[in-house]
């Protein structure tokens, strides 16, 4: 839990949580609260339902370019809240 607190409190620009939404919600932990809050704020994206998101993440993985998700100046964040 301490590691989760460090990650959550140190995010400056963006925080991506990759995981199985149903499992995280059923965990009855801080993850449940985060997922429910993200859904309420319309910041929760399901790659199984969002085909463009699934294609983008697959392409980044294939190109070994996942570091783009860590760049706050990336075009991916141009319209971020």
Automatic annotation (TrEMBL):
InterPro entries: DNA2/NAM7-like (IPR045055), P-loop_NTPase (IPR027417)
The protein, known as: DNA2/NAM7 helicase-like C-terminal domain-containing protein
């Amino acid at each position: 839990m301490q590691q989760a607190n460090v990650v959550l409190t140190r995010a400056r620009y963006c925080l991506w949580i990759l995981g199985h939404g149903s499992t995280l919600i059923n965990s009855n932990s801080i993850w449940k609260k985060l997922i429910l809050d993200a859904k309420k704020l319309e910041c929760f994206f399901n790659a199984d339902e969002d085909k463009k998101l699934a294609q983008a993440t697959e392409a980044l993985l294939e190109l070994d370019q996942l570091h783009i998700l860590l760049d706050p100046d990336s075009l991916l964040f141009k319209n971020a809240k």
